Amino acid sequence: MKIGFVVNDIRTEEAGFTTTRLSMEAINLGHEAWVMGVGDLAYDQDENIRARAKTVPKKKYKSQESYIADLKGKKAIRERITLDELDVLMLRNVPSDDIGIRPWAAGIAIEFGRIIMRHGVIVVNDPSGLTKAASKMYFQLFPEEVRPRTLITRDRDEIKAFAKEEGAVVLKPVMGSGGASVFLVRKEDFPNLNQMIDAVSRDGYVVAQEYLPAATDGDTRLFMMNGRPLISKGKYCAFKRVRTGDDMRSNIHAGGKLREAEVTEGMLRIAEIVRPKLVQDGMFLVGLDIVGDKLMEINVFSPGGLGSAQKFTKINFCRLVIKALERKVDYMQFYGRNFDNVDMNTL
């Protein structure tokens, strides 16, 4: 299998990232794995899509650290490859990370991915589905039963009225990730509400969401693959994040701590409720962030944490993901690379 991984920029990739783990696992399983940044893509005059990509010299790696060192170092193999000749292209860049610093990079990988599909390259997650999910507005398309009450607006008075009605709300930008510009607003914080709204609205529309008291216990990330919870040997691919100190965010790079997750029937019910739309939109690998009996976020762009789940379950879920892609490549060969990409994502 010849597989490509699109990231924001190879220089910012780290050993612990899920994309690093996936590409290393592909190498260890005997596949050809190429990594490229968004800015490395090109549509050539002969109508082929190519990219300045990197791979590694060895066929086996024991650690992510040695793998990423080779990929980013002088030992890396650099070639301009034809993406139309790939079997699989994984879009693992996060558009919201580029909006402020490289606006041109935010959505272009999706557009390239859409063209690459024409010759039967499997693109995951499906580019058309990712286009729908480009902001947190996508979350509002899922059943109300699984979502917190939400207001999305730039009107200061509407946000203040919603906050007073709820008593406590969370403010965050429509375009954002990693807990950036996220505020918890309680009644005692109302005198500072204007400044909080200003801070969030600088990036565009504001999402005002009811605060869930269960958030004090942290949130659970549950992975979905092929439209169903990812499970092996009776263990779900999941982990829990708990906040530390006074920071309301449980994101790991916001100071949250990892814990073993207990996947409940309520969480599995949420997964079942969102499953039809994830399948409809061609979402191969997804991370659900769950607080109590509500879904807080659906991560479809480069969901991370497969290594965190492995830490507690002792199961290499990255291998299961690559094996699932192997099966999809087999399916495409059976059908002469003539199968709809959105359906192939969740087969």
**Number of distinct beta strands:** 19
* Cα end-to-end separation: 18 Å
Which regions are unreliable across 5 or more consecutive residues at pLDDT < 50? 249-254
Strand fraction equals 15-25%
What about the largest sheet? 6 strands, antiparallel
The class by helix and strand makeup works out as alpha+beta
Rg: 20 Å
Q: Per the principal axes of the C-alpha atoms, what is the gross shape?
A: globular
Helix and strand sequence: EHEEEHEEHHEHEHEEHEEEEEEEHEEHHH
Mean pLDDT: 93
| Number of helical segments with 4 or more residues | 11
Q: Please bin the fraction of helical residues.
A: 25-40%
Write up this protein.
This protein is an alpha+beta fold. It has eleven helices and 19 strands. The protein has helices at 18-28, 64-72, 95-98, 108-116, 127-132, 156-166, 193-201, 265-280, 306-313, 317-334, 341-344; strands at 2-7, 32-37, 41-43, 49-55, 77-82, 88-91, 122-124, 150-153, 169-173, 183-185, 206-210, 219-225, 228-229, 231-232, 235-236, 238-242, 257-259, 285-291, 294-299. The strands form five sheets. Strands 12, 13, 16, 17, 18 and 19 form a six-stranded antiparallel sheet that branches. Strands 2-1-6-7 form a four-stranded parallel sheet, with helices on both faces. The longest helix has 18 residues, at 317-334. The radius of gyration is 20 Å and the shape is globular. The two termini are 18 Å apart.
